[in-house]
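Hey, resending since the last one bounced:
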Amino acid sequence: MPTPPEILKRETACQSRLFKAEALQLRFSNGEVRDYERLMGSHAAVLIVPVLPDNRVVMVREYGAGVERYELTLPKGKVDAGETFEEAANRELQEEAGYAATRLTKLKLMSQSPSYMQHTTQIVLAQGLTPSRLAGDEPEPLEVEIHSLDSLAELIARADVTEARTIAALYMVRELLRSV
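The structure tokens again:
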């Protein structure tokens, strides 16, 4: 395993309500010195794959300000202070999709763009679903759609299914369910 670079300098480049950008100067083991910037995450996040007994998955359609369009995605959100990943997953599932789960399984902690982003998301499989609704912080009601994992190739070919975490989580869960 390589030796991590030495951090020579670290400073806040800018700060917003949600993110902090940090400037780093690093010296690598071969002596090379480089400047980097990274987004610092302020919280952990969960992405939930809610699966009904017949291997259908519950998805939500929500507006993605970053891509300026509506996306079909999986329920997700931040982990509040004092919450476990499972508690946050069950809360977000109820807020966004209108279901509660009796079985929650942590599958994988995933990073996004690790070269410049600190943020990670815990993928959680939700099973034993029953209708349950909690008030959430969404600016508008989310449309719920149910899709079969057996038609995953057709689902991810759609123009409104582009989020990488969602696609990876759907494949992960489909393979897991095939193996049991």
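The chain has two domains: 6-40, 45-178.

Sorry for the duplicate.
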